[in-house]
Amino acid sequence: MIVFILLFCAFPFLVGVKSYWITVFIFAGIYSLITIGLSLLMGYAGQISLGHAAFFGMGAYTSGLLTTLLNWNPWLALLAALLLTSSAALLIGIPTLRLSGHYLAMATLALGEILVIFFKAEVELTGGPSGFGLIPRLSIFGFVLKRDIEFYFFVWSIVALALVMAMNVIHSRVGRALRSIHGGELAANAMGINTSSYKVQVFVLSAALASLSGSLYAHYVTFVSPTACELKLSVFLVVMVAIGGMHHLWGAIVGTILLTVLPEFLHVFQDFDILAYGLILMIIMIFAPNGLVGALAALIQRLRRRFLAVDSQRRGVI
Amino acid sequence: MGISIWSQILQYLVTGVSIGSIYGMVAIGFNIIYNATGIINFAQGEFVMLGGMIMVTLTAAFGAPVIVAFFLTVAIVALIGGLFERLAIYPLKNAGVLSLIIVTIGGSIVLKGVAMFVWGKESYALPHFSSEEPIPILGASILPQTLWILGAMLLTVVLLTLFFRFTLIGRAMRACSSNRTAAYLVGIDARQMVCLSFILSAAIGAVAGIIITPIALVDYNRGFLLALKGFSAAVLGGLGNSAGAVIAGFLIGILESLGAGLVSSGYKDAIALIVLLVILFVRPSGILGDKEALKHRSF
Amino acid sequence: MGCGLIRADRTPLPQKVEECGTMRNHRIWIIGIALLFVFACGGGDQEPGGAPTQPAETQQAEVQEPIKIGAIFAITGPASFLGEPERNTAMMLAEEINAAGGINGRPIEMLIEDTEGVEDNAVKAVRKLINQEGVCAIIGPSRSGVTMAVVPIMEESEIPLISCAAAEVIVKPVKKWVFKTPQTDSDCVIKIYEHMKTANIEKIAIITGTTGFGDAGRQQLKSIAPTMGITIVADETYGPADTDMTAQLTRIKGTDAQAVVNWSIVAAQSIVPKNMKQLEMDIPLYQSHGFGNIKFVELAGEAAEGILFPAGVLLAVESLPDDHPRKAMLLKYKQDYESKFNANASTFGGHAYDALMLVVDALKAVGDDPAKIRDHIETIKGFHGTAGIFNFSPEDHNGLTKDAFSMITVKNGKFVLFQL
């Protein structure tokens, strides 16, 4: 954790405070917030969602609309967005989480699509497919987060907080209950764990994180349109979690950073960057079906075992 | 001008059936792979797109007769499907369902990239198989090509049913999907069945692509959105059930078209999706899906 | 694939060791093929001129420092049919300019980034171009929404942006650092409505795509109609991936509309004339300037005959009279583009042409200081572009009037000027 913090503090000074890599990492940070929540939902509660872009969109639109149309304070708008999205997630989660597997994926996907259609159709309110802009920037105690470097530190501190919170969740009673759901829902039920209530709780938590991420996005880009929260994003969020390794919270961060940074390097391939991108996804999944962090953890374990084995052998010789 | 409300409604139904048959065709492809592996193949839409694209190339660029081009296209796409399975799915022996799905997402991106490289970014159309003169039915009209789509779909369903019921390989595939270990014990190689399922559903995807391109056009980016509708139909019908997929395809198509005609074209897709959600909440395993199908593998 | 589908003999469960071996073999295969692909692509893209058109290692001994111009287009993704011709045009022009000795002896370096038509990529790309590369101006993006997303950065960094997107909000209200080259939606609408007046059409139906372009058109169509005595009796939309619009058109058929306006920029717009033909609707069909690609005519086939739409004369350049002041320039662009890329020239590429040439005009006059470029563009008058004759002013950052549009129709599968 400390290494993580140091690394992120040092990063801007390594690449230069005005470097566009700061911008890239701001987006990585914004999406990390969602993937941390998704990782809890997928890796720990064993539920899949293809609708998290919708919660992201809800956060972004609510924040954007309240601040531009009603001149609300951005922080107040952010809280309102959080509240609205969480209640929506609660409402949606109760019937939806009765479904499982692909049916759950389809239901969340449908909900996301409906929301995007709403954003596109309600032109008077949302600006329709063109979106709307002029969203004010965030300020902390009167200090406007105008420069990228400022926003960078702001976003990643929030990511760190979210990570700490998620870790607490995992190590709490809820976390143990969640893992039991993943292990076998029936058995968990039989043990007297109210699985559906825990599932809904995690779902709402992950939606709230997505909403927060959306609000930050709106205040950073200062412009929101339906393309920002389409199904494609939902799919990629799931891919980010899986590539990083869904059974580890760090996997969410690693996957998000990797898939946000990767396209920047693939630009050398020009139009073929999507081809290379797809190939890399496949190769990672084929070689590390449990994600990069999963593979790393397995490797460390194997090395440790081998080391121990060598150790005990040597001891045997002596 | 003006036409009576009844012939309008009839036209909506006809349109719905015509859109729905496209969704149904795509959904059938999903089902075959789902049955064999339990995964949703995100590259299914790309098989459809490739079918359309390769057909365009064979007929327009090489001037092949439609019939020859048709079978050649299906064969090529089937081969791509098989290769895809061997290269990307086969090596992932014991991976979870989610890992497999991510691999198919990667695969779909790759296929899309290849298509962009080969065919560029423009849209293509095919000439209709027969005349383009609409056939009037009681004040509504239907294109002959729609009849081709309907015919191809029914034929596909019938052939698939016969294949799964009466041929040795088809029965072996069914055995694998209902109980892998048991199938293995009686000497069926499940791995080969998975490969076969990819070949089969790629071929069906190609057929779908070929017959819908005259109406729906095709470009390298088309696959994803077709897959989305196809996936909706497959889930609504009950995963793994081809008759259900066809019914669900029609249902979604008709809802969309009635929604566009009678309510609001902006919300037509939303209307179809809301009905889909309601049905899923009432019947969590889809219209024709049985409870058995719900026993999914964990992610 | 020689797969014995069913094992006749009941072989015992294969041994783990053997399994591992085959698995590894497979993996090696996959890597091999993957690498092959990547290399093939990496090698392949150099030929057609990879993005940053290198300033051909200037022949002169005194190598001048190149002038860096940025460009952001939707080269891949759903809007790539816009970004592709724009990118090609920008590359082609840069090569031509450099071959002719550059600008005041300095070569130009085009730095082209792909937005995929998505806002966050555009934000990243613009930051990269400005902070990392230090460009003096940026042309693009292709889409209106994406343009609006990068406007704040341009205003903040004080670098001029010449957008290739059409929506009116880009320049209305005027933003100090932002210009655009495509004609304005409202002018297109006025042109269509004026034409309807001459044909005594008063009641119309509109059908628009649910993209930024389609929606902007829908807004203009609706707001201008009352001022010109036109009633909209049906207002329908369709998604960019829809395959069949007969439902919407049947609804239109049920009204007393005397004409249909189909406003969209995606290929799906070609399905509308086909469906109208299917439903035997013989009222006139008007399209927007988003129809300005002959490909859309090919897709619609016979049904496209007689479609009317306002667009720049670039599309029908062959049917222009020889004394037309811009004919030679348009013809050259069209022929150069078509021979170089073996694809049809479209007005979309033309927007990039105009954007880059405006920047070049400024560079020639005032050098590569961003503030001076901006000030200069604002004073450009009588500039002959592909979209029309541009007259910029501090109040007008588009510089075109409705005269930039001509009514064009489809005849025998070709664009020709519409004559009464």
Task: Give structural notes.
The complex is a heterotrimer of chains A (318), B (299) and C (420). Chain A is built from 14 helices and 2 strands; from the N terminus they run H-H-H-H-H-H-E-E-H-H-H-H-H-H-H-H. With 318 residues, chain A is mainly α. A two-stranded antiparallel sheet of chain A has the order 1-2. Chain B has a domain at 15-221. The longest helix of chain B is centred in the N-terminal third of the chain and has 33 residues, at 5-37. Chain B is globular. The model of chain C is unreliable at 1-25 and 30-61 (pLDDT under 50). Chain C has 420 residues and is an alpha/beta fold. Chain C is built from 12 helices and 14 strands. Chain C has a 5-stranded parallel β-sheet, with helices on both faces. A 4-stranded parallel β-sheet of chain C has the order 7-6-8-9, with helices on both faces. In chain C, strands 10-13-14 form a 3-stranded antiparallel β-sheet. The interface between A and B is large, with 48 and 51 residues.
Protein traits:
heterotrimer, A: 318 residues, mainly alpha, two-stranded antiparallel sheet, 14 helices, 2 strands, 77% helix, globular, C: 420 residues, alpha/beta, Rossmann fold, five-stranded parallel sheet, four-stranded parallel sheet, 12 helices, disordered N terminus
Quick structural overview:
By secondary structure, chain B is an all-alpha fold. Chain B contains 12 helices and 2 strands, in the order H-H-H-H-E-E-H-H-H-H-H-H-H-H. Chains A and C meet through helix 2 and helix 13 of A and helix 1, helix 3, helix 4 and helix 6 of C.
